[in-house]
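Posting this for the archive.
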Amino acid sequence: MKLSQIKLLLLLPAWVLLTTCEKTEWAPLDVDNAAAIDQRTTCDPCEGDLIFGPETFVRNTGRPVGAPFLPPGQVPGPNSQPMAVHRIFNMGEEADICLTVANHEVAAATITLDGQTIFTPANFTQTNMTLQLNSQLLAGTHELVVTMLGKPNGWIEVEMRGCITTPPPQLLCSEVARMHCEAKGWVVMDVFPLEGILYCTIDGRFSENNCDTCDVYNIYVWKDGAGDHFCPGIYYSTLKGQIRGGHIPCQCNDNLYWCGNWDMQDCIPDF
């Protein structure tokens, strides 16, 4: 079967300005609100409002958190590369922020913000310590990427605070699902916001290839009972936050292969 239309969704880049965040070198905000400007010059970002987290990233297996899906019985090879854990968050305004990483026996990790590496394995040792970075972020969508390395059982906690005047806006679930798909290098093929599903494939194959396996074909679900758009009229036992593959066996039924879960990040269901 062929799709009559392919919908491509593009994520515009969100820029990050990394600075030493000296309090005498604030950049001016493009706002008329005097209170916001006053907060900008007096607020300590590390004591500011919560923007992201706190979230714990655990290295609890023999491979990094977020490693790619592997079919049952298959183990990662000795030279396999880990897939990083991506987190998307939104800034409603330009703000000075403070990113805090509490390390608990993690020997190596890499953390990037909007594609720019801010902490490398050289910053980590297997002793408890806290890393902090002061930065300035523009309004819009940003991406935090954490890759856990080293031996299992360590964990880090990541939190971001900042000098903001209003809470960061929540994202629609279709936006978060799209960003997660694109962050792992896959292609968004179709989105059905009201149904609560997004089709994400490794190489741009059609959404109607709905008997393909998890390693090449994912359906992101953000509504309980959402299923395959191309097999309607069926009760699906899916739950929000799941990733499903194609039908196994290859017939329209409640048999979408379970591929794992995705972080919905408290998104708002599309209406």
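Residues 173-183 form the longest helix (11 residues). Residues 173-261 form one domain.
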